[in-house]
Fold this protein.
Amino acid sequence: MTHVARLLVLLLALFGAAYGHDPVLIDAEITVDGTRVVVHLAMKPSAALAGIGDHRSQVDPAELDSLAPRLAAWLKAGARLTADGVAVPMEWMDLEGGSDTPLAMRLSGALPEGAHRLALTLSLLRDLPATISVIDTVHLAGSPALATVRDGEEATLALDATTRSAPTLLTYARLGFLHILPEGLDHILFVLGLFLLSPRLKPLLWQITAFTAAHSLTLGLAISGAISAPPRIVEPLIAASIAAVAIENIVIGRLAPWRWAVVFGFGLVHGLGFAAGLAELRPSSGGLAAPLIGFNLGVEGGQLTVVACAAAVTAWCRSRDWYRPRVAVPASAMIAATGLFWAGQRVLG
Amino acid sequence: MRIGPWSLLGLVALGTAGIGGALLALSSRSTPAHRPGYAEAVRGLDDWVDVNVGRSRRDPRSWLALANLGEAYRQRALLTGDELDLGRAERSLEDAFIAAPGAAGPWLARAKLSATLHRWNEIERDLAHVDATTMVDDADLAGAEGLRAERAFQRGDYARAIAGYRRAAELDPGPARLATLASGLAVTGGGTEAEILFSRAEAACTPADPVTAAWVELERANTAFELEHFDEALTRATHAEQLLPGWWRARGRIADARAALGQHDAAITDYRGLIARTQRAEYMDALARELRVAGDPEADRWIARAGTIYDAQLATDPEAAWAHAFQHFLDFGDPQRALDLAERDHALRPGGETTLRLALADLRASRLADARTLVDALEATPWDVPRVGRAARLIHAAGGGNGIARGDAP
């Protein structure tokens, strides 16, 4: 017994507080976007751990990755979604939370065209002592209706226009834009790194075009499932690419012949990073064109906004002799330092 | 390749920042900040549970291993409030009794669990077995005394309860037993001695044991809250949280005190956080009360949610649910159902708290004569908290009577 536990034994034996067998609560929120349905499940860490035969009470967020496969298998076995009586196969998406905050996990599946009624049955905690009851609350995002059932019972919810919104090109474009501004600080710094090399518009547009062509390629391949790369590899590489471009700005100081290839290569890496952002709205089958085009348009819009802002801020000094030594080089140094820091941080932890 | 002075300066800055960043990243990885608090305490109990799970698996016929496992689960439940652990504790103790030979078994552990679950009628049977056991140390005897005292308190036998708390504190004079005695005295007319005992309990706490120190401080906060010294309750609960950072129970009392002091926005924020962490229905009710004060219709959603939880809890473990469920139905639901719950709870433990609830339920159900009889009887007991006086005034005013309640006396 640990020191802490020993102290607690002495203390807690005296606690006068009384408790009941509160039910275990599992919250399920269903989001429907066109042909895709996402089930968000939230519960106490101890409940999720109990589901996979772990008797601990809390989860260290650092171990979520290692727990994910077991939690995914448990949820896929215990969560059954049907649309108009037809089973919807569910795929694991992700999880977050931990410590003593609720664990939030997501499953997704393909929704048949024209489905009117969804039914979710969660049979997740069947092996608990008989004195513990498990309550599932199920609701559709965008709808006030809430179904409350005991675990193992079916919660049925009607789909209507307010809960069923098909994503449009604009939806994906908005997602792509937000992925740059304000959410994509690393991508912003990369674009600023490209901008700082040369104040002239033409080289900048060439670089942006090379970057766009590259990330569109890998984004498409990743979204279609042809390639995949884990975030543990992609994210440090993205950070390293930021540092590399900024260092080249300082050391070389001009548009070297290999710059296009370098930017294209880094674009390939960034495309894999964008894929994670698009996964949230990825349609289950077919129809990849709209998400890809829309998302890329949004990304380009975000990048061009960054360039426009940078151009506006530096308009008064870009043609000065001291622009490079007093603006481009120090700014590149800061970008490089940030990139290196992120690279180290993402590799180590 | 030529590097000018500005570029050189840039490279130096880059190198410095890069090295600094890397060192920072490495240092934050290799020497994580030591933050003793609630999470660490729970980890300690996780480890303890883990050890006992291992022992009981290695020797599934050992009732001692199963009893220790049950106690480990119960201890963790007391800190975390996790309903799963109470069920596991119950099952482990049942398994221990099945494995135990003859009259052996975890009698005291089961009595403690029964107290935790408000099953007061089941305690004495197990304590009788503890009394009959020859191998009992002072800590166990103090545990048995403490449980009997608590049972007496719940039944309204305050003299016997205080005497029992005293005996327990003599057998095991630690800070927690002193604080328990002090809190009992504070609400039964022994305020002066209670202050002295609370101070002694605090002085007996050590920095090495933040859980005990936080618990003693929270007990003082609870007592101050019960006596409606809300500023003091807030101060002490805040201190308890500082002693054990992250302890949800301390945050719960902070929220209650803020609500009582009219700090509604802060209380709403606290209750939302507590619901996210604990999913406890009483915090949903508390949030709903605050939202109603603010005229926010979101209150209805939380009331419905809490009602669902109470329905499930009443179906599986009624004794433990009666108190909180009563308040829910009294404030938001069917008065007749509140009255039914209050009657059942009062029959199980006819102490001041349940008598007050029953009187209020009678009032709500327009049974004024019964309410007046109960509250008059309550005013004659040593249980002396401001709620009694206010309830008496309310009941007598509703009945059109001229009785002078204790709280009205000069």
User: Anything to note?
Assistant: The radius of gyration of chain B is 26 Å. Chain B touches chain A through 92 residues (CB under 8 Å). Confidence is low (pLDDT under 50) at residues 20-35, 401-410 of chain B.
